[in-house]
Each structure stands twice: as structure tokens, then as C-alpha cells.
Design goal:
The chain is mainly alpha-helical and 229 residues long. The protein is built from twelve helices and four strands; from the N terminus they run βααβαααβαβαααααα. The strands form two sheets. Strands 1-3 form a two-stranded antiparallel sheet. The chain has a two-stranded antiparallel ribbon with strand order 2-4. Helix 2 packs antiparallel against helix 3, helix 4 packs antiparallel against helix 5 and helix 9 packs parallel to helix 11. The protein is globular. It starts with a strand and ends with a helix.
Length: 229
Amino acid sequence: MLPVAEEPGNQSEEQSEAQPTRLAGIFKVLLDATERDKVTLEVIFALLAKRGAAIVIFLCAFLIFMPFALFPGFAATLAIIILFAALNLIWGTERVWLPRGFLKLGIPGKVLKRGIEKTMPVLQWLDDHTGKRLVWIAEGRISDQVAGVVIILLAITLILFGFIPFAGGIAFPIMLLATGLFVRDGLVSLIGYVLSIATIIAIVWIGFFAVAVYNGNDWQDLISRAFTW
């Protein structure tokens, strides 16, 4: 394990603190890194690490919706990174720690640039429609720890079921929870918690259903009994 290292020649502390603190502004910073052929996670996290675990979690969940996340194992890899970042939320460490091997993984610069540019209107919309609401839900040590536990559960679910079509939807409540923590918007966090609970219940129900069918039960009868109950 090692901390995400800063890229040589990075800005000074004063310059770093002067960087944008809203989602769209931070992702504009990433656009500069997309000029290279391959953008490694080490480069990306060197730009984002000082902003805390929430923005790293948001970025990884965001990348899961990219077309290249369909490659086998990519979504699961991002989910593992989300898991490590969520542990940092629980521990309360200032910087995100990741295994060294993950930092060498890369994304084609052109692909990342195209993805960021296409989603920039969405990020700008989030900036315009989020703010400090119900702050007690999204601010403080306990809020970080509770969100970290929920995000870990979702990340584990994504690792286990990431190969299933549309399983990437599990990343959506993760994005909401990370957004709520980053901008300290408790309303967004609350929506994230509701969707997280619904997602976990749905996954558990699907799991029990799959086991029941595997054991020889009639799936039509199971659905009928479920809705009758």
C-alpha cells in the first residue's frame, strides 16, 4: 500500500488551494492531463488526492458509466478502488491510499477527454443545483463513516455482480453519496442512501430468486408468490 503520489512539478500548496472546488471546475483540471496518449490513475489521483476520498469515489463511479468500462474486469477494478477510498472515509485519513499496482492502470487520453467533455453539462448542472442543504447528513466524521460503510457494501456488490448487464447502475447511488459528501449537500446524500438501500434489497432479492430457481423452483410461481406476499 502507498499514498497516491503527487506528480513531479505539481503546483504549490497555495496554487492547489486556489483550484476550483466544484465538480465541473475539478474535471476541467483533468482535461489538461488528457493531452497525453495514456492517462494513468497515478496521474489522475495526483491531481485529485488532496481533495479527499469523496471526489476519488465520484470519479471512479463516473468512469464506470464510460464505454471502456464494458471491458471485462474494468468495472470491478474501479469498484475495488472505490472500496479502498471508502475505507479512507471511515479512517478519516487526509489522502487516499491505493495498492501500487492500481496506479499504473491507464485510460486512453482521447477517450477520457471525450467522456469528460460530454458529461461536463451534467457536472455543471450538478454544481448549479447542489448546495449546503441538510448539512448535518453530509458533514462531519460520523457522516463520512456511515457513507463509507454504505459505499463499501455497494462496491462489494459491484465487484460480485459487475459482469451482469446494467449492473453499472449500482454506481449511481455511489455517485450521489460521493457528491453529497463533496459539496456537503445532505439532500443529495439522502437520495443516495434511499437508492443504496433499494439497490441492496433488489440485489438480495435477485440473489434469493436465482438460488431458488437453481434449486428447481418454478420462476413464474416464485414471482406470483412474491407479488401476492
